[in-house]
Amino acid sequence: MKTVVPDRQQSLVQWVSQATGINTFGVKVRLRGNDLHILCEGTECPQRWRTLSDLLQALQQTNLDILTNSEQTSIYQVFVYGRRKGEHRPSWCHRVHLNQIDKHLDQVQQALLADSEKSKQSGGALIVSNESLARQGNPEAIARYLSETLSTLGVSIQAKIKLYKPKNSQPEENRLWIFCQSSYSPDASLLAEPIAQKLRYLKLSGYQDAVIVSQVSGETAPDWLLRVDLTPPEVMLKEWARWGDVQAIARLLAEVLSGLKVGVQVSLKESTLHIFCIPAFDPLGTAPIPDKVVCLEAILPQLEAIAPQAIFAATVYGQKAGDKEPTWIDWLTLPAANHPAFAISPVDLANTGDEPAIVFLLERLLNPDLDWRLLTGGIRVLLLNRHGLLHIMCDAPICPLRQQVVSKITQFIRHLKIPGIMGVRVYGRRAGNKEPFWHYGVDLEHRQRLVPEATPEFAATSIYIGDLVTPDTSEPILRPDLTTKEVQNFVTEVARDWIATATSTARKFLLKSQLFTESNESAEHNHNVQGIKTALVWGTLGLLLTVQTDWVLGQIIARNTPSSPKVASATLASSSSEQKASLTSGKNQSQKTTFFSSTSKTKSPPNQSSVFNASEFTQSDDTPKNNLPAAPLKEKATATAILLAARSQMPSFNVRQLDEQLALYKQRLARTGSPPDILIIGSSRALRGVDPAALSKALATQGYPNLDVFNFGINGATAQVVDFVIRHVLEPSELPKIIIWADGARAFNGGREDITFKSLAASAGYKQAFEKTLTTASSNDLPENTVNSGEQKTNEEKQEISTYEAVNQSLNQALASISASYQNRDQIKSLLQKQLLIFGNNQTVTSQKQLTDGTLDESISQQAVDFDGFLPLSIRFNPARYYQKHSRVTGNYDNDYKSFQVEGQQDTAFQEVLQFTQSKKISLVFVNMPLTGDYLDPVRKQYEQQFQQYMLRLATNPNFIYRDLSQQWTKVNDFFSDPSHLNRFGAYEVSKKLANDPMIPWPVK
Question: How far apart are CA 260 and CA 769, in angstroms?
Fold first, then answer.
């Protein structure tokens, strides 16, 4: 509610008091929107007509805008109330239109002169309503008319008319602008339909549309814009009647015959229109039957002007409402019988791709209530056919609900079977907006998508294509004289100048270092003595710096290394074993783990809990007291993966983990010569949730020995990402016999933005992968000798790689023998990361001492996968401590579940995976991964149930198995690292459970 500033309010109170003679204590004023409310009180209720007479005379001589706040919009009407003090409701109320004060004053004077009996008669001048004035198109009258409704909401109104120049070379037209100002930000849905109804009710002529601008008082930018279609109802009816809509034809005929006191009923059978003329009002049954000649003279011109599509004739009947037989009948031939263009039905035209026909049928489908469409403008449809996709935009004063329109539109388009249309994209927005609020897509045929589909731009109106609603200011955002080509040329020139400047600067710097020379200089100058001396000086300085750095790092490690000989020997053992880690088997790895565990046990007696950890600091309170079974930890492969990804000939996918996982997978293929038997894929829930070593070991106990398992989990991977990896990144010969897809409902949410796939689709690797897929068929037809030569080349490359690794290993061993810090490089890295972590978090010395080596190592290794692609985390989820560092996000505000729906792009990708795996005879097992009870709030449970139903419907597909473990361990927090991800202990249990599942067809070697 908007109120007046105190000093201005005091001025208004004093002005009313002086005008009416009522004490200031008996006067109260309040401003709401464009309305001024004045309450007059006294020991006796003030006399109505005397008080109004004094007030109206004062209003004739006073400009109220001077007495109010300068920021307050104009006052259109004044409400005057009178009551006795102590009463809660006024005894009388009178509304005064400030643009008709003279007429109000005449009415009041007539009431004062007349006696009590004659005062009941409405003498004096006639007061014209704001509605009547607004119908004439006066902007001030329109503002007063709208303020009658919106002032009660605290919204003030101003109206303006601005000339508008269409972009299709048509003459300038008037556009009505309505500015709504309030002290708060009203929701568009609160004002949209009331304003649209009131404006359309006026049946304004000369305006195509109106723009509603809502703005908060004191702000410069508008809060929201709304477009109201001011097309008259008669024009809308004629548009639909032209397409043969029976309801629209009946409305038009009823309006024509209403002056003749004739009612009309219309029905359509096949291609003939049946029109029944009856008396408009005949409660007693005595009204005469409508005259035949008069009715036909009124109906025939109207039907010929409309020329309804695919309606060839009309039969007109004259009768009373209760009669079974008509009194007279006549037949009329309509234009469709003589003109072939009018003979085709709208449905047949739509089947050929006629866009106006499709628009009519869709609008009729989405607006079943004709009265509501005429009242508010209804839901409008805009079409755009691009690259085999039919884009359909639905807009209305209130954005149409997705579930309200999507199913109707998709079923209708499927039924039409328009040639060349391979898919449908549906959008919804509020009228006047450029961008859609939501979108939905479905493919009618299989499509090969090379790049993500962008949302096309739709005009704000269907009449002026390319025209969008602009803000109130007439200042252009971009220079209109600049073309797109000129802008592109300017950007290209600036970029070229910048590149040239940067290249010149770098060239001068390198030449000044004397390590580089001009490429066009003579050979004699390149090999002169001065150049050799410079190279020797720089080489010597580099060698000295390297030796000095190595010595300093060795001294630092020596000071920070504990003086325990046992620990030192263990460290040396681990360092020497790391050189051969990539070539060792799982057996050697388990032996090394056993050695470390036995070494640590010598520090304290058995069965005795020590209060000190390995770094001799006291243990934290959240140290697990119970030991849980898990597979032995393997050597980390992150550094190797980074190196392999950097050396790879494949361009990057803009997703670092995908690049590294792919590099590790390719290394596994090169080493074993065949793909793994089992491939685990999915998001981070798969990356952390299924342990390949534990799964392989558990399967061996079930009679499936020596199965090779690899975890291809990728953080943030959705169904689209998995589909891309399986069908386009990996070759068919690189695919396993069975795929375990471990994930959950979040990866199938088609309503949220797929950030991971969006980044991936913009990469060079994405483009190359699709090009490779398209050329796979032709490459399969190569002659046998070409294949053999390719295999020979591959063997040579493997031999070269092996030679390079041997040289690299020998150099590493030579450096290790003379370096003081090489053997302790892991400790140096941990120390540096610890210092950076402490500096970044700005921790105190006390908190540093409480941080144990165990927790530090865990935080550092959280993103370190092993050579099986698995990310083992030992952290155990403790809600009390976890939510001290992380916010508790409920399902209502979880972006992973935003606009949750299983239909859409993710479902399409999943269907592609199902078809592909079936064609390649690969078994696909989807595992809905466990979640904590703390994570499964009521909102997420509802989404999980939708996902369950979706998966159960698809479980009937061959070669597809669905397993639900989402609520397996909801209360066992020790199996989780956070509310929705397993740790290595939970991954061990999941792996065992999958191995024991009799329904999964595990491969046999």
Answer: 74
